[in-house]
Predict the structure of SpoIIE family protein phosphatase.
Amino acid sequence: MLHEKEDLEKAFNKELFVIKNDLYYQQIDLTKNGKKELLRVDISYRPHSTLSGDTYSLRKTNDGRLVGFIADAMGKGLSAAMSAMAITRFLNYFFDELEDEEGFVFDVWIKKTLKFLQKNLFDEEIMSIVLVEYDIQESIIKYASCGMPTFFILSEENEFQAIRSNNPPLSIFTENVRTMSLPSIPIAKMLCYSDGLSESSTSDGKLYASYLKEDFIDSICVKDFRDKVSARIGKGDDDLTYVYIQKLARSKEFETLRIASTYEAIDESLTTISQYLKEHDVDSKTLSQIMLTLSELLLNALEHGSFGVDKAHKNYLIEHNLFDDEMARLEKLHQHKKIKITYGILPSGKRQLFEATISDQGEGFDTMVLKNIVINAEKFNGRGFVIIRKLLDHFYFNKKGNAITIQKFITPFLEL
């Protein structure tokens, strides 16, 4: 039994490895017509059992388009998992190949997918899949939805659209796949999902599809949506996979601090933010969690960002009792570098969300290493982020890796 469990865990980790996500814990900074915005793309992937028939990937083209898919292979267990893994490998391989040649072309990608499935599915097998290309700058969406549930779009003007499947599920008998384009619309939120989400039963005996639109529209962020899903269906009745996209303007109401790269300046900024939270009646536990997180992140910004000290060198300095003297030397050398902190509270009905962004002038880091949080969390030890992840509701980095935005609800989630 022990070996069987280990084999299943290895198989699941293999699934996670094959899946590609070019935006792990990363938000995209956008500027259009002088307007600064943020784009956040979050994926929830919760197999009902170790081997999943659901799969997905999210890629970013060289020219900035987002390309992704969610697939749901017929059946359960090993057969469905093998089909899911095969289509994931194929779609990612040909995405990379198109990018390396003349650039990604959505229609070519879909034609290659159909040819692959025609040669690799059994006669009785079917594959439900939605493939999407999102041109962020132009707000144009191309899609091919094959036997998948309706996906949702909410515009900046609060106009709701439900986009129905425009193709049947794929099989070896499928001759062509129709693609469609949505006209340019200012997207505020978008949700694509597998039927495990909409067809799971709620505590009152209904299908979650009855509440999905309401919860999507009312959610302030992905964590808020996840809380609503969990309250309605718990772990669900099947694999749960969904992509939650949110585009929002930078808040003009937030406070901003620009501090010198010194330990004293960090202490003063923490005092200022703590006072702000107390003035907004944040409870002591939540306040402590936020302040512990900010302290950790500001020290990272100072030592790793402004001072340029990596983890290995820091450990060496500590082991040889050289750390304090070296930090004092580097502080004098780099105190002119600024660390920027913006923070504030976003109201949303009965819940309030604290959000803060810390940015430094350092070189940043490759945020793709954060995939290890998903694949191998127990062995991930990067810059204290595992601990921070437990204290926070969510966080995002910029592409360069020298700025982090954190989110923490300061009011409790009320059961639906």
Observations:
- The radius of gyration is 23 Å.
- The chain has a mean pLDDT of 89.
- The longest strand covers residues 35-46.
